[in-house]
Amino acid sequence: MGKLCSSLISRSIVNGGRNPSNFHSSCSFKTVATHINALSKNFMPARGKPKKYDSLDNVDDALFLFNKMIHKYPMPSVVEFNKLLGAIVRMKRYAVAVSMCKQMEFFRVSPDVYTLSILINCFCRLGQIDCGFSVLGKMLKLGVGPDVVTFSTLINGLCNQSKISQAVTLFDEIIEKGYEPDLIIYTTILNGLCKTGNTDQAIWFLRMMEERGFEPNIVAYSTVIDCLCKNELLNEALNLFSEVKVKGIRPDIFTYNCLIHAMSNLGEHKKTTRLLNEMVDNNISLDIYTYNILIDARCKEGMISEAVEIVDTMRKHGIEPNVITYNICIDACYKEGMLSKAKDIVDTMIKQGIEPDVVTYSSIIDGLCLQKQMDKAKRVFQLMIEKGCAPNIRSYNIMINGYCKAKRLDEAMELFDEITQNGQIPDIVTYNTLMQILEVEAFVSNEKCKVGKVK
């Protein structure tokens, strides 16, 4: 797999070595220090003994405990600080953990591989991957050898930022340095390749895992099967699915749903039925996602009654429709001109205690626009806002397009002006619709000029 021009590890050493403290610059620790001091003054003994690390669930308690630790003599070991940092990370207070690391450095608490790995993880979670690599450089400068968890964290951070080529480069480098990647690293890169649609590389990587003695689990195989399905490579997905079963690995509900979704999109109903029967034979129950796939497929083909039958079957099996189920049916009914049926479904949805969301409202508005009932569409649009459901760009596009087709151009332009005022960003559909409005206005203006000249 390809290399970047310069070694990521080598660059980390250079960047981290210039000033081992620079990696804290992005997160000020003064605020946390002030907070700690305030807590130490105001903290009341009535609160009882400090909680153990594993039961800490409040950042103020953690900060108070940290303050006691750094002023204790003799100071607790770095292991104790690591436990506290771990508790902070479990609270997802990553910036606080970074600030604590800075204070630990100030009080000369020597970090170990676990401390610095926690710090790298925090920077990755904060989207500051470059700071994470600076910490790696500091580790190497201090002679603290990174372990496989350290590299796993960095690779995960790169993949989360869709920097897959850099993640693969780092993977190659750690192998060259003599580290043995674990299953988590392999699965992380595999998942990253699939998310970015690198199907061929994902298959290659899967085979490399097998060759190196890491037998992929069903999660890894399902990830690749899902990638193949999304790229409409159904035959390849089915071949890999068969391979999984031959190896004695039991497919799970996610695996089946990926294949059923792909088959349904391609209209392969016989294959879908065979797969559903296989699920039943293997005691794998259909979930809400499976049913929604089947309902959506029927609705897209205009088979509304069959879709309703699937909803009834779902209920008989103890699974209640969710907002997605209702949205699929409502959208299909409006597109088929079944306004009364769509209204009944909306009423049922509300009676079941499920609040309409932006997708529901947009489907209703779209259906009314298709029926040229713009006044009703406008009322639903206003109702959506009154109910605290903010319109998205699709909602605006539907209304603007409806006004344009109804030749209510002033209202269309007025709504277009509202888009940016309400924090939305116009997309290509918005601008294409706007161009239609301008073309119509130009045509009307031109015709008026011609009439004026004749007179």
UniProtKB/TrEMBL annotation:
The keyword Transmembrane helix does not apply. Pfam families: PPR_2. Gene3D superfamilies: Tetratricopeptide repeat domain. PPR repeats lie at residues 112-146, 147-181, 182-216, 217-251, 252-286, 287-321, 322-356, 357-391, 392-426. Signal peptide: none annotated. Keywords: Repeat. InterPro entries: PPR/CCM1_RNA-binding, PPR_rpt, TPR-like_helical_dom_sf. This is Pentacotripeptide-repeat region of PRORP domain-containing protein.
